[in-house]
Amino acid sequence: MVEKTIKGAIQLKNVFFSYPTRRNTRILRGLTLNVKEGETVALVGHSGCGKSTVMGLLERFYDTNRGNIVSCNYFYKNHYVVYRVIIIYT
Question: Name one GO cellular component term (predicted).
């Protein structure tokens, strides 16, 4: 069973990000966002403004170039990522 809710607050503090293949193109420039536990937030904007990038950073597909992401008072960069693979046998 996959946990559907995130416990604790999530904070993005002065986050800068560029994709490794496009270092000269900054996708995020100083993004700061505070989401309280239980709060619902929508990321809205034009194509290419960084909505999916923020989600990728939260899922640890990438690390920030500068700034921090904090969840439950833990810095994201200090934790290893463990991906779960779902296997269905028929």
Answer: membrane
CA gap 47, 37 in Å, rounded: 28
**Neighbouring C-beta atoms of residue 57, cutoff 10 Å:** 22
Note whether residue 70 is domain-resident: yes
Q: How large is the average pLDDT for residues 31-58?
A: 91
Q: 43 near 51, Cβ under 8 Å?
A: yes
CA dihedral sign, ordered 49, 54, 60, 62: positive
The total number of residues shown for the chain amounts to 90
Tell whether 87 is covered by a domain.
Answer: no
